[in-house]
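Summary: Need help interpreting a holo structure output

Steps to reproduce:
1. Submit the protein chain below together with the SMILES for pyridoxal-5'-phosphate.
2. Request a joint structure prediction with the ligand placed.
3. Inspect the structure token block that comes back.

Expected: a single structure record containing both the chain and the bound molecule.
Actual: see attached output.

Input attached:
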Amino acid sequence: MRTFQLLRQAILARLPPQLRAFLARSFVLVQKNQHMTSAHSKPALATMSPGAAYAAPIRDLIASMETTKIGQVANLGRGDADVIKLWFGESDVKTPAFINRAATKALDEGHTFYTWQRGIPPLREAIARYTSRVYGIDCDTDRITVMGSGMQVIVLCCQAILDAGDNVVVVSPAWPNVSQAIEVMGADARPVRQILKGDRWTLDLDQLFARVDSRTRAIFVNSPCNPTGWMMTSEEQKAVLDFCRKRRIWLLADEVYARLVYDRDVAPSFLHHATPDDPLIVVQSFSKPWAMTGWRLGWMTSPAAFGDKMANLVQFNTSGSPAFLQYGALAAIEEGEEFLKSMVERCRAGGEIVFQRLAALPRVRVARPQATFYAFFAVDGMTDSLAFAQKLVREARVGLAPGSAFGDGGEGYLRLCFAQSPERLVEALDRMEPFLR
Ligand SMILES: Cc1ncc(COP(=O)(O)O)c(C=O)c1O
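--- attached output ---
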């Protein structure tokens, strides 16, 4: 029997990842069905489980996960200094010195102990003041919870609200980590596509609402959107919040690009329409506005009671974000407006360079960026964006993210992060152009 198991594991380990993933998905479905009919019987397909192919079994859902498509492109040139890397969502600017100084001072002062699960009080208070100032609303400190990144906010919210078999309706194309966080919980991410009309991305709210069913626990809206740069209007936000209120489902609003907008100071926010106890969770991050991607700090604005509960999940996850880093974040939020302006100007200039050059190419369709720091552009005749992006790394020495990485509606597109110096962008465009003609 033991020999048979070892043989089976060896065979599974050698299967191509796609086939292993297919077997895992079928296996999970069979398991779910069997669970419904007979809670005690062992699944008959256990012998095919990809999770069993490890030194000891792991969850099939995890075993079947593949490297993300952006990762598959980045792995080709990550360590190669000659490749211009525009595949991830970050700028080439280092964190400004005034933020670093605040963190190192806190480190020297001994802020090196376990800390508050919901964040150090001075930071939570400063974020509440910032929210009131930037959005012109009243925001109490008890609505603010600091966590170890925007990503962690999303993951812990999924843990808090999703059971296996539930679903979240996600506006798509979308940053891939969101559906992965949902699927890790055994829940489904249900995409609803944005549509490119002329040079504007739009969303049909009737389609969005029609995807909600009795197992829907949340609607996930990322506006301004990574990758398309689409922004939901304030009227649309009001309608979506009203819908969620009536259906008693959560509205997970990812607003991490709220300050990276080019025609106003801040993007429309669901916060403008919400009462403190509405089912609204706004995900925010220090990463993008203050060049702090490596710090891993973000926050959520939510009903106070939900924030209190989330303190437990933080406890069972990281047990809190490092206090000395939070002092750096405090400097960012209190003194960071000037730096933020320079960041917006840098991105505006980068976006314009990229837009002008791409729009001049007959095979390329691109919208002028309104927000975020991405150009998401279609290339006529490109049917496999992953293969195309890999070719660009190998032959043009430029790294972009393939549109297919962003799920439904993403194939046929490439994403370029333009939060870079004009010189690097011009060089990247010079190198890419022959492949886009
Ligand atoms: C749409 C979106 N949400 C959330 C995040 C998470 O940001 P972080 O985990 O760096 O705070 C990102 C990062 O790329 C993003 O693009």
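--- end attachment ---

Reviewer comment: Residues 2-63 form one domain. Residues 89, 149-151, 175, 222, 226, 254, 256, 285, 287, 293, 298 surround pyridoxal-5'-phosphate (CB under 6 Å).
Status: needs-info
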